[in-house]
Amino acid sequence: MDLGLGGRGYLLTGASRGVGYATARALVDDGARVLVSSRSSESVDAAVASLGGAPAAFGLSADLASSGAADELVTTATAELGRVDGALVSVGGPRPGSVLDTDEADWRDAVDSVLLGTIRLVKALVPVLGEGAAIGLVLSTSVRQPIGHLAISNGLRPGLAMTAKALADELGPRGIRVFGLLPGTIATDRITDIEAASGEPAAMRARTEAGIPLRRVGRPEEFGKVAAFALSPAASYLTGVMIPVDGGITRSL
Ligand SMILES: NC(=O)c1ccc[n+]([C@@H]2O[C@H](COP(=O)([O-])OP(=O)(O)OC[C@H]3O[C@@H](n4cnc5c(N)ncnc54)[C@H](OP(=O)(O)O)[C@@H]3O)[C@@H](O)[C@H]2O)c1
């Protein structure tokens, strides 16, 4: 199937590694051009080089928690890509912990980056988008069911999911689609870090895999291909939905 991605331009945040990078990889492999971003300029440079560099890939370091990042990202994406047909908004995940163990300062940090960082970027982006554009938010299965050690994710992701749903209503009449992606456990650095923090990484991985119907964690490229499809013109009637990429672990439909 031709996804119709040839020549289109996408802005991807949190994309120097992990599921954001995997999505950039899938988009570029299908002929799109990307601007990838994260906080570390070294990581961004490495990601751009590994995606083949210009004219397929450009980069900009920016912290989504900072209030100026959104405008800078959109201005640079427009200048480098010539056209912006959509975005994948991924931000570093919030600090692990239970509700009772999590400090207010950690909630505030996550509100700044995960919640407001996402909303600021979308608001800056919409004026440059035209009919056929798409915005994907990287959320979590915590949109549908709580994850035991990720209180902040449980608190913020469902709100972002309904924000995406509301945006799909607001932008639908202009032909702009909005959707969320709900990764289960995808084998990225974030998962390695969470497993290491548990003090028993192998046992934690085994417990995770035992609970997944496919009996394994996902590969980043398995997420990236779904995200690239959902962003592409091939998914032109898909909006206002949450798409789990989770090996079947979500208990609700
Ligand atoms: N992997 C999973 O199984 C899984 C499951 C559920 C939800 N998620 C969510 O999906 C998102 C991405 O996860 P991942 O596994 O891809 O994580 P990852 O491998 O740790 O990658 C995170 C990416 O985001 C960048 N980043 C972090 N904080 C940022 C900020 N404030 N501003 C801009 N960029 C930032 C990082 O680069 P720099 O350090 O250079 O900024 C990196 O490129 C997270 O929100 C996570 O909670 C992941």
Mean pLDDT: 97
Choose one word for the global shape. globular
Run of helices and strands: EHEHEHEHEHEHHHE
| Structure class | alpha/beta
- Count of DSSP helices? 8
CATH class: Alpha Beta
What count of domains describes the coordinates? 1
Radius of gyration using CA atoms only: 17 Å
Low-confidence stretches: none
CATH topology heading: Rossmann fold
Architecture overview:
- There is one protein chain.
- The protein is globular.
- It starts with 8 loop residues before the first strand and ends in an 8-residue tail after the last strand.
- The protein has one domain: Rossmann fold (3-Layer(aba) Sandwich), CATH 3.40.50.720.
- Helices cover 43% and strands 14% of the residues.
- The protein is built from 8 helices and 7 strands.
- The longest helix has 22 residues, at 104-125.
- Strands 3-2-1-4-5-6-7 form a 7-stranded parallel sheet, sandwiched between helices.
- It is of the alpha/beta class and 253 residues long.
- Bound molecules: NADP nicotinamide-adenine-dinucleotide phosphate.
- NADP nicotinamide-adenine-dinucleotide phosphate binds at residues 13-20, 38-40, 43, 63-65, 90-93, 113, 138, 140, 183, 185-186, 188-191.
Q: Could you name the key traits of this structure?
A:
253 residues, alpha/beta, Rossmann fold, 43% helix, globular, binds NADP nicotinamide-adenine-dinucleotide phosphate
Short description:
The chain has helices spanning 18-29, 41-50, 69-81, 104-125, 151-171, 189-197, 201-210, 220-231; strands at 9-12, 33-38, 57-61, 86-89, 134-138, 177-183, 242-245. The protein is of the alpha/beta class and 253 residues long.
